[in-house]
User: Fold this.
Amino acid sequence: MCRNAAHSHEHAHVPEGTAAFADLSVPENELSPGDLSRRRFLLNSGLLGAATLGVTALGGLAAARPAAATTGGSRYYQWLAGDHHVHTQYSYDGMYTIEQQAAGAIKHGRVDWLVITDHGHAAHEKFAVESTYADIVASRARHPELLLWQGLEWNVPGGEHATVFFDGARDEIQLLRAFERLFDSRINGTGASTPANEAKALEALGWLETALQTGSADSALFLINHVMRRGRFSPRDLRAFRDAAPGIAVGMEGAPGAQNEPRARGDFNNTADANSWTGWRPEHYPTYGGFDSMTGILGGMWDSMLAEGKGWWITANSDGHFYNNDTTVEPQRPGDWYDQHGKYPDPIDGGVPIRHADFWPGQFSRTVVGAASRSHGAVMEALKAGRVWVSMGGLIDGLHVDAHAPGNAPATLGGRLSVRRGDDVTVTISVDLAGRPNANDDVPRLARLDLIRGAVTGSAADPDTFTAPDVRIVESFTPRGRGRVAEFHYRFRDVREPFYFRLRGTDGKRSAAGDLEPAADTGPNENPWNDLWFYANPVFVDVL
Assistant:
């Protein structure tokens, strides 16, 4: 993870990573070596200086260019690691206290933000909402360096699970309780995949929209969890969520938690059941390199949504219930304890490390967001905007991606670049390579980075489409040398049609036979540390 200072307009002592390299009024002797290299690359590419001065690279007058859709590139933002899917003793299947989760996430995962998402349940709604909030307030006071939320793992009517949380709510506790009581399928019996229950889920998103419109909350987010674990969400469902509440329903877990589950990574050993969408095929149910098939299959469900030219972002989370090699255990209690209290007794130290399916937040899976400030609202805005990359096992420490075109400010992850037909688009990629051992005592090595391009073709004629044929790897890069930073460049020449590009990277230890693609995780999960990947959300390129 890297944290960069926000952009400064002062020229003196310009820090590495500001947009100073793009500001020709800043003398070269005030630039860091990295920013000087970036400026010279862009000057040589004709993407800087010419547009700034209103002159083409050949010296003629430049035509007017479209305004940039974003305010700055990747180095304007603080990149903060976190997790939006974590359980505590207030969940019917959890164990840890909120303080243990907060302190453990900081110690083991070095995270900056964390969302507590205990399951919806009658006992939770009845007993746990206020107690959870009190514990969160106490942990916020103990750990001011951690941005901590109270959220909910919503049992979605007609589907499975999703994260829901608010920011700046006037009465957050009552909002959460009302939402849970009205719309949680475990409470109101709407879990079956029926048209009426699926309509109930859309009604819930409408309720969240109303909360924002009336000022009951400043912001709300909905992110689908472990999407293909049981295959209960159809492609039509995902599109309906996104289109019903585009500022709230913004994405899904690209990789599930439970990465250390012995039966299968992510515990994705399930096959279709009575509530699964019948269009999913057997190859959709396992993970691929630990990532949900919606993300891991090139040209699959994720790409089919991006091909519409609309944002649909991915994250990666711990789904933390019980942590690998921890000695903490549950105390003895009556079988109906949770139903009577909405909370389990505090866990105790059993003295013996135990293999569990989960890793601490940030310890294996990291969701890194580009936030304009270190605040709750800025993290939520970054998630909404798609300024997100995700990584496993400490494969990389940092990532900066920017797209450049004449007359435009750079666009980064989740952003849009509007260009004139025939312009070139140059992509600059800077990777902070792993420099310290991960929790498996390895220093991972990035073996390959893939730049992936997909055509933007507009809204799908069939809302149950789950493929995007016009998606391909346009370039694979291999880091060279012994430096800690690897930089890559690629130019899309003579752009004529809208498209998007996205990135993924791997340690190269495991892939499909004779292919660059991740291998399906169909057997027992022996060691997830030997198959590490990272993915980044796309940048869209619009053609005027």
